[in-house]
Write a structure and sequence with these properties.
The chain has helices at residues 3-6, 33-42, 59-69, 94-105, 114-117, 145-154, 171-175, 198-201, 236-244; strands spanning 11-19, 47-53, 72-80, 86-90, 121-123, 129-132, 158-161, 186-189, 210-212, 227-231, 250-252. By secondary structure, it is an alpha/beta fold. Helix 7 (171-175) links the parallel strand 7 (158-161) and strand 8 (186-189). The model has no long low-confidence stretch (mean pLDDT 96). Bound molecules: zinc ion (2 copies). One zinc ion (ZN) is lined by residues 78, 86, 162-163, 169.
Length: 254
């Protein structure tokens, strides 16, 4: 135990660590950075993470918008593996998230067809449109799950398996189980499963830190699922400790 950390006063915070923006082709165009931050505050959240499909290009704008409102915003990506499994990658800094993004972009084939998949808007913290991402963000990377987890860790991030209760695009849905040698930091259940009942509802997740998240693609869905965190402050380092259950930090099922 770290005595300095252990003596800090611990409080409870509300987190929703899987939110898309208007950059995701399936994300609503109303999901601009400014409005995501405002709606997150309105929903009573203390910490969110921005996880667009295979990209972190709007994360900085949401972080800046969150700063103005006292909302902690972690930069992240929702990466699609070659097995078509989604994993959320969370980072402490925008630089680390962008480092991961470059790794992903180099292994993400194809171009977006906006008429088929939707627009991929890059915006600033005032919701002003800066441009459009041309890549096939909705596609699968050529990376397998092990390569993704290893690179997320090399960039200093945390890797959480997305919506494992869903039949499609999920670790358990696609593979049928969690490979015991896959070094993931946690698993996420969707809003359809109350976190307090996740271990009874979803087979094979015992022993893994478990969170829930809204996976919001529309403003109204932000905070439809959230989890409590007992920690000193809403930040990446404390979240990492809570996932590991270190020094009194922990996840609280709501
Ligand atoms: Zn997903
Ligand atoms: Zn998602």
């Amino acid at each position: 135990m770290n005595p300095a950390r252990a003596t800090q006063e611990l409080k409870h915070f509300r987190a929703d660590t899987h939110i898309h923006t208007c950059l995701s082709p399936c994300g609503d165009l109303e999901m601009g950075p400014r409005d995501i931050a405002a709606q997150s505050r309105h929903a009573g959240l203390d910490m969110i993470a921005v996880c667009d499909h295979n990209s972190a290009e709007n994360a900085g704008a949401v972080m800046r918008a969150g700063d103005r409102l006292g909302l902690a915003v972690l930069p992240g990506l929702e990466i699609c593996s070659r097995e078509e499994v989604h994993v959320v990658a969370l980072f402490e800094t925008l630089e680390s998230a962008h480092q991961m993004q470059e790794f992903v972009y180099a292994r993400l084939p194809g171009e977006n067809q906006r008429a088929v998949w939707g627009e991929q808007i890059v915006a600033n913290e005032k919701n002003e449109v800066l441009g459009e991402n041309p890549r096939l963000l909705i596609g699968a990377t050529t990376l397998n799950l092990y390569e993704i987890v290893a690179q997320v860790h090399a960039c200093g991030g945390l890797c959480i398996a997305s919506h494992v209760d869903r039949p499609a695009y999920s670790l358990i849905g696609n593979l049928g189980f969690i490979p015991p040698d896959l070094d993931i930091d946690g698993i996420e259940v969707s809003f359809r499963v109350p976190l307090s009942r996740a271990r009874e509802s979803v087979n094979g997740i015992a022993g893994y830190p478990c969170v829930t998240a809204s996976d919001a693609h529309f403003l109204k869905d932000i905070g439809r699922a959230w989890y409590g965190l007992q920690m000193a402050s809403p930040c990446f380092a404390e979240l990492r400790m809570a996932l590991k259950g270190e020094d009194g930090r922990k996840i609280i099922a709501n």
